[in-house]
Amino acid sequence: MKPIRVMLVEDHFLARIALRSVLSTHSQITVCGEASDGTEAVEMYRQLGPDVLLLDLRLPRMSGFDVLLQIRKEFPRARCIVLSAYRGSEDIYRAIRGGAMGYLTKDVSGEQILNAILTVSRDLRFIPKDILNRLAERMPAVDLTPRESEVLACITKGFSNREIAEDLSIADKTVRIHVSSILEKMGARDRTQATIFALQRGLVDLE
After folding, report:
1. 15 with 94, same domain?
2. Could you tell me which residues are beta bridge partners of residue 84?
3. Same domain, residue pair 19 and 67
4. What is the pTM of this model?
5. Tens of pLDDT along 77-91?
């Protein structure tokens, strides 16, 4: 198997050393580049095209949020994991809404970081339960139809309406109707919040 090429974006030198040390313990993972500020991160990503980006949010010159948005704009299928010292629900929400496929706090174990990289490299989300619990609000029971459940599962994978239509062999218009119904039933204001609610309540499985 080809190694998973990971790019690190972290402005603290010692933190990068620690991350590199953790990643070196897994034979499937290799560090292909390291950036210490946001502007450098975007340029390096364009050059290297890593499999997974491990990104801090607080960076000089260009914030991690802006890095995430710029990279996802240029590379919509980019796999990004935020690794931040911040546990605030707004930071978490903005990162996930911006396209992050994973969110970890810096006090997690090395094993969790490795698991997150392996999971995200397979185009799956990695969001620990404690992170989901910070975002999810109490919701009434949700009664989705079997088809709506299938559409919701696709939404949690980050699929666009067109990708959902192709995956389920239904019309784009039908997908839009299902998405609207799902959001209304869940009381979610957008697809990101629907994903958070669905994962937190176990309506879909991360796998």
Report:
1. yes
2. 105
3. yes
4. 0.69
5. 999 999 988 766 678
